[in-house]
Design brief:
3-stranded antiparallel sheet; 8 strands; binds zinc ion; globular; 10 helices; 5-stranded mixed sheet; alpha/beta
């Protein structure tokens, strides 16, 4: 797609945004009716039932934003055409925008839409499950406390990682290839490693017909109650890559990518960076369609992103 040719100005972006909204269906925030008039002079939809008006941006990812449509389009284009990612300061430089904050917000809103879209997907089949520990900035309220070491450190954010991962038959494994094939993955920031935290999250994100492979940690003691089969096993450190290959490939790729792109990651926004990583990973074979997919997700979800991590 030649982005510059297709979206040369604000009006071409607006027209495209409207056509996607019309296709997805506009819903009245008051009465939930889906029948609207388009008021061209006001650039807004008017509900046929109750007369409630909403702008082209209302109830989408652009809700409440003053940035141009073209900025949003450029950001969506870059987010879906780059294999890795880029920082808000990089995008700010590309756009030539004066202030950093609105651009930072725009990217986080898009990442939160990615998370909402993937949140609807339920993992199924055989699933690898483990935790990852990501280095993040120490939250303000923790700064005064003494620094703990290792995995309990305030510098480490805990992430529950799950990967749909089907074993490949021995004679079908390509030479040097992986013993398992991966499909979708999920990465979810968790406050602690308690079974009460992990079990409901797994229940919410994984089909009850699934089989889960994990180590024998007490955090996973209740998983057998929410899925068809749970196979906890004692895993020696050197065998993790063999038994749970894809969760560990995903964790180390995400860590390497974040380290290269972002100066410092705030633990409150780690989930958004993970959203983007998983969104791209899960759609790695879609190629050019990714732009349209993210556009559809962007008109479908109202921005509810809050600076304090909500
Ligand atoms: Zn209405």
């Amino acid at each position: 797609m030649n982005f510059v040719e297709e979206y040369p100005d604000e009006s071409s972006c607006r027209a495209k945004w409207k056509s996607i909204r019309d296709k997805q269906g506009v819903v009245c925030p008051k009465c939930k009716s889906t029948e609207h008039y388009w008021k061209k002079d006001k650039e807004s939809y008017e509900c046929k039932k109750c007369g409630c008006r909403q702008s082209l941006r209302s109830n989408t990812v652009m809700h409440g934003s003053n940035l141009s449509f073209r900025y949003w389009f450029i950001a969506i284009h870059l987010l879906t055409s780059t294999k890795k990612s880029f920082s808000a300061s990089e995008l700010q430089r590309q756009l030539g925008h004066k202030r950093y904050e609105p651009i930072w917000l725009l990217l986080h809103k898009l990442r939160s839409v990615m998370g909402k879209r993937d949140g609807q997907y339920e993992l199924s089949g055989i699933i690898e499950l483990d935790e990852g520990f990501f280095t993040t900035e120490i939250p303000e309220e923790e700064k005064k406390k003494p620094l703990k070491r290792g995995r309990g450190s305030q510098r480490k954010s805990k992430v529950l990682v799950m990967a749909e991962s089907t074993p490949v038959k021995d004679d079908e494994t390509p030479k040097g290839g992986k013993p398992r094939k991966v499909n979708h993955i999920k990465m979810l920031v968790i406050p602690d490693l308690m079974a009460e935290t992990i079990t409901p999250l797994v229940e919410e994100n994984v089909s009850c017909e699934s089989m889960i492979d994990s180590d024998d940690s007490t955090s996973y003691i209740e998983l057998k109650d929410v899925v068809k089969e749970h196979n906890p096993q004692v895993i020696k450190k050197e065998n993790v890559g063999k038994i749970l290959p894809w969760v560990h490939i995903a964790i180390s790729n995400a860590k390497r990518q974040f380290l290269n792109i972002y100066h410092q990651m705030d633990s409150l926004h780690l989930q958004n960076y993970l959203n983007e990583f998983c969104y791209k990973f899960n759609r790695r074979y879609l190629g050019e369609n990714l732009f349209d997919r993210l556009m559809i997700a962007s008109v479908s979800y109202k921005n509810q992103f809050r600076c304090n991590g909500g």
